[in-house]
Design a protein that fits this description.
By secondary structure, the protein is mainly alpha-helical. The chain is 79% helix and 0% strand.
Length: 112
Amino acid sequence: MAHDVLIVLIIFAALFGIIFVVISARNRERMAMIENGTDPNAFLHRGKSNVYGILKWALLLVGLGLGLFIGNLFETYSQLSEEASYFASTLFFGGLGLLVAFLIQRSAESND
């Protein structure tokens, strides 16, 4: 019982330590840039925004949900094993959702 609590505490301490080191290193880097007279915002990457990111994630999650549903149907009404039906249908419909998102994005970009 005590080992379980100790493991959880060690995991949270490690996560806190990693986050603290990243934030403090970024702060030191920005302070050094300010001391040297450079603008820290000039080094931020401002790339082209991906407006189709939400569509891609939405169709991926819809595909995964549909895949789990179809996998349940395969398991119930066929001789396929539980692992094979869920795994195959989830990957298939998730990939199908990503393919649909790609086709929609390509079609919209070609119209522009």
